Amino acid sequence: MASVDAFRLTDDQRIDWLRLIRADNVGPRTFRTLINQFGGAGPAVRLLPELARRGGRSILNIPSREDALREIEDASRMGVRYVALGEAEYPKLLREIDDPPPLLAMRGHDEIFSRPAIALVGARNASIAGTRFAAQLAREFGEAGFIVISGLARGIDSAAHRASLESGTVAVLAGGHARPYPADNEDLLEALLAHGAAVSEMPHRWEPRARDFPRRNRLISGLAAGVVVIEAAERSGSLITARLAAEQGREVFAVPGSPADPRAGGTNRLIKEGATLVTSAADVIENLTPMLGLSSPPTMREEEMPLAALSATESDELRERIAALLGGAPVLLDELVRGTGARPGDVQIALLELELAGRLERHGGGLVSLT
Predict the structure, then answer these.
(1) How far is residue 61 from each of residues 23, 24, 29, 155, 273, measured CA to CA in Å?
(2) Do residues 105 and 27 make contact, with C-beta atoms less than 8 angstroms apart?
(3) Buried b (16+ CB within 10 A) or exposed e, 51-60
(4) Domain spanning 312-370, CATH class
(5) Which residues sit opposite 169 in a β-bridge?
(6) Bridge partners of 226?
(7) CA distances from 143 to 74, 118, 137, 210, 281 (A)
(8) Could you tell me which residues come within 8 angstroms of residue 341 by beta carbon, excluding any fewer than 6 positions away?
(9) Into which CATH architecture does domain 107-291 fall?
């Protein structure tokens, strides 16, 4: 592949990518491993049932080509495009995170992602003062040339989106584009598309569940150079976004609040733990301006690779040896390779088999553990 921006999937490859990421037990990290291990989504999809069977699972749900094509066509009627990691339209900042979505469903203006971005998140039950300050920050970020990223939720998110409708804002959806949440923000979503965009990694008609919001939050932080938190209680989802931002190497900012207000408990703690205190947009802009040079994205190959395979007996032995070495505590893949004495490629295949059977969990930084 000559360059990342020259990469472009064919229509058939896009269908294969969608089938693979929608298959049971295949998340973004597993997707990348499968693509690189087997040379493309097509070969990986064909091998999934056998890999899962060898890992101990007899049935694995994999969408048919017809199912994948139906989703793509359904989405296209709303103006939604499925952009692959590595294609020119894919947001460059999002490429950098540990688990970027292989396919990002995008609606609106792709070019908005060429501008620097700041995420603004906070309480759904925000105070009047909190929403007013969020709107003030969002307007000033827009005036400084930044786009505003948020999650379309009530409260702080909605205030941030509304204040940056003209300058540009991006809504990150927890569900599919056909099921925005909350439903009473559909008008806001349509309004922001005039100058902004909306993105999702979920199936087009997916109704969001509680566990989908942390997945969404990693995209909010991943799309931005920094995350500003306004009014977040001690167990707020906004604190998850802040933690993910720190893990992704993004800057974390927090607006202080009264110790008597439960909505300020999380933001005040963030400041104690090292987040930059924010009293004006300048606090954020001055901090981020010198930091916007960013690194290269992860790569995925789409070229047929020869498949070296162990015998069935050797494969079974290696897989069980790996399962015996692993536990609930995450272990580095390199340590696992050294512990087994096997070839790295053979270990990767055994791990894929265990993962597709639901027995393995992947973590950031090349760590794996048993579920």
Answers:
(1) 6, 6, 18, 38, 43
(2) no
(3) bbebbebeeb
(4) mainly alpha
(5) 148
(6) 118, 251
(7) 37, 13, 10, 35, 10
(8) none
(9) 3-Layer(aba) Sandwich (3.40)
Blockwise average pLDDT, block size 10, the chain, 371 residues: 64 98 96 93 95 90 97 98 96 95 97 96 94 97 96 97 98 97 96 98 96 96 97 91 95 92 92 95 91 47 51 74 80 79 79 81 79 80
Phi-psi group of 150: left, alpha or beta (phi > 0 → left; psi -120 to 50 → alpha; rest → beta): beta
Token pair in block for residue 68: 């994948």
- Only one residue has tokens 């087997």, namely 38
Select from 124, 121, 154, 140 the least CA-distant residue to 226: 121
282 phi/psi in degrees, rounded to 5: -60, -35
Give the separation between CA 20 and CA 88, rounded to whole angstroms.
Answer: 21
Which residue from 317, 330, 308, 242 is spatially nearest to 278, judged by alpha carbons?
Answer: 242
d(CA 222, CA 207): 22
pTM of the model: 0.83
Task: State the helix-helix crossing angle for 128-143 and 281-288, rounded to 10 degrees.
Answer: 40
All CATH 1.10.10.10 domain ranges in the chain, comma separated = 312-370
Alpha-carbon distance of 26 to 198, in angstroms, equals 24
In the chain, CATH 3.40.50.450 covers 107-291
Contact between 62 and 49 (Cβ < 8 Å): yes
Q: Under a CB-based contact definition with an 8 Å cutoff, are residues 9 and 278 in contact?
A: no
Please state whether 63 falls in left (phi above 0), alpha (psi between -120 and 50) or beta: beta
- Give the Cα separation of 306 and 255 in Å (integer): 54
